[in-house]
From TrEMBL:
It comes from the Bacteria. It comes from Alloyangia pacifica. Residues 63-86 are annotated as: Disordered. This is Uncharacterized protein.
Length: 86
């Protein structure tokens, strides 16, 4: 018996998903590099800091992977106590 258009499309999507499962993750090399090292090597980072400086903000100097909490204002993020009460 012939397949309907819906069945053909489902099989086609299944084949595509199966092919995608076997592909390497193209971001793998970037995921293994800490963000601070990636920023140091990225020639475009100066464009990011330039845009911030033109807007009147001082760009962050990222030397370690301490996370965004280090660079935010104290009142910008909720504290652990605030999160517990939500």
């Amino acid at each position: 018996m012939a397949m309907s258009a819906k069945e053909r499309k489902q099989r086609h999507l299944e084949r595509e998903r199966e092919l995608l499962r076997h592909l390497d993750d193209s971001t793998y090399a970037y995921l293994s590099t800490p963000f601070c090292q990636q920023v140091a090597r990225d020639p475009n980072w100066s464009k990011v800091t330039l845009a911030l400086e033109l807007a009147g903000f001082e760009g962050p100097v990222i030397e370690t992977d301490e996370g965004p909490e280090k660079f935010t204002l104290e009142d910008a993020l909720p504290t652990d106590e605030d999160r517990a009460h939500e």
